[in-house]
Amino acid sequence: MHDVNALRDWRFSIDPQGIAWAVFDREGESQNALGRRPLEELAMIIERAEQGARDHSIRGLVFISGKEKGFIVGADVREFDELTDERQVIDSISQVNGYLDRLERLEIPVVACMHGFCLGGGLELALACHWRIATRDEATRIGFPEVKLGLFPGFNGTVRSIRQAGALAAMPLMLTGSFIRATAARGMGLIDELAPSPLNLPWMARKAVQRGRRSKPAGGWRALARLWPARGLVAKRLRSETAKKVREEHYPSPFRLIDLFETHAGNFDGMKLAETRAFAPLMLGATSKNLRRVFRLSEMMKAQAPKGLAFKPLRAHVIGAGVMGADIAGWCVACGMEVSLQDVNSEQITKGIGAQKKLFTRKFRTRPQRDAAMARLIADPTGAHISRADVVIEAIVEKLEAKQNLFKSIEGKLKPGAVLATNTSSIMIEEIAAPLADPGRLIGIHFFNPVAQLPLVEVIRGTQTREQEVGKGCAFVTAIDKFPLIVKSSPGFLVNRVLAPYMMGAMQRLERGEHKEKIDEAARTFGMPMGPIELADTVGLDVCANVGKILKMAPSGPNRLEEMVAAGKLGKKSGEGFYVWKDGKPEKAQPETPFDALELERLGRELVDPLIAEARKVRDEKIVESADLIDAGVIFGTGFAPFRGGPLHFEAHEEKSNVAPLRRTAAE
Ligand code: NAI
User: Fold this and answer.
1) Which of 15, 548, 645, 666 could form a disulfide bond with 554, CB atoms 3.0-4.6 angstroms apart?
2) Do 99 and 224 fall within a single domain?
3) Contact 195, 134 (CB under 8 A)
4) Which of 26-35, 163-172, 548-557 has the lowest mean pLDDT?
5) Residue 661 falls within a domain, yes or no?
6) Does residue 578 sit within a domain?
7) Given 92, 288, 290, 425, which residue is catalytic?
């Protein structure tokens, strides 16, 4: 018997009533992930509980987290790459599944107590327990995010979630990777009991053990979808719904999950084994590897905010309540900050604040939460709140002199240590900072439009900017749940610079008479979220023309872009650009004969070529610190096909797989 008193990631104890408590508190980590050591220690806990059940020294086992913030965030993604062949994957997963089976078979009651994130492997562990209690807290979120990593649940979560919730609820949860609240999970049958707060968990768990509570599998109509022929119909519907969102050749895992369900969901034990067999190739496939890379890149971006910084942004002041300023203010408020919004035009402030209602309705469930958000967004036409702000962001018109004058006029009013930032998309930071008494203070904090949708924010370092200010800028961006990317002040920064040649290239093809629908479809075939022509219309053709000029990439001579801008056809916002827009959607003409698949593939690859070439230049000019961070910025700032791992990674990988081995010369 291993010593359960010497565990490093768990604390194990048996109380005077004979209840065993397994407290998961991973050593040296802020969150609990089920890595190799915690799983080995879990096996020791199970072994000890089996022995205690046999000799009646243990009458129940309770799993609870020792972390303040969450139960378990899932399996440890950092260890996935160590498995390099299918046999290894199958062996290592089968071992864990063996532990969970033993847990489930324990004759004493086994209870899981959840507060905060309970995701992926964490939820699978909980599903192998006999009774599940979760806090009603807003912070408690339950889900299977595996599909976002190109996988599906592999610790028999597919089988157990379908058993508990029925396929009609469990399959969409796994297929979308969305997180649900404890109340919704209880409605589905994944959770058995709700606790008012984390403080109630131990007491409720004790009661559940004393009463020998055991959760019941989904019964009645919820169990029906598992049976044939209902299963075939459900699978068909799930397949067509999934195909509307992603392409099978890009993201195979949801389709393999539907196959698994369709073929095996009638047989509990058979499906368990089939799950492992279907999981292994996905784990080793390119899509999952690249999506795991994207996950690591996102962590890398967050890590750009220095640790242990005393700077904690609570209040922001935004100047300019136009398209960007109002949405930046609204987003910061939605993330819990108090924000004052200033503009020379007070009507703009009223309009900008009013426009945030939509965001708050989406973000907050209850009326008091929405009212509180509205109360945190303060109209400030005279800038009276500027001296209270931890972060001041300028988002006024894109004119150097206007920006310089504004910064000169506010510099003396700032709180010491406050971040001073501009949202400029094209002017050099050092030019804006030139007239300041302390030019080293100014940074760029460049958001993308629409603010609520795009996760990337470029943090721009001017030639004189102090490193500490850049660090604080990153801390602010992380605090509002966005990914910061440090970029040197240079034309177009990163995202606009790589997008411009891609979009201009596509427009040149249009000039040459190529079909706009075909161009857009080809880009989507490559994996872009929308094609370059539709993107140009969405961004605004005036904005495109302007960026093109700044980067000296605009077409010379008469061209359709200039003509349309002159005619007021600005794209989506004016109702017509390259496309005519109806109800927020472009009207696309159907081709007479469907586009040829190979042709689309070839064209798609050609279309992204200028983007990749520009990303290479950005790397060579050291505008961004590393190739990995460039890939991260392009993925999160443009939506560049995440399953391809980023433009530079894609190119390197593509070359490696296409180029024949070099022949050695005689001299070597
Ligand atoms: P906008 O024209 O919609 O809004 C500018 C607002 O600033 C107006 O409401 C105007 O009344 C106000 N304003 C002008 N001078 C002012 C002053 N001295 N003091 C206070 N308020 C003043 O402009 P938009 O599109 O929101 O752009 C703002 C900034 O954000 C620009 O620097 C732009 O380059 C940048 N940006 C714009 C993006 C976009 O897609 N529109 C994307 C990323 C950055």
Assistant:
1) 548
2) yes
3) yes
4) 548-557
5) no
6) yes
7) 425
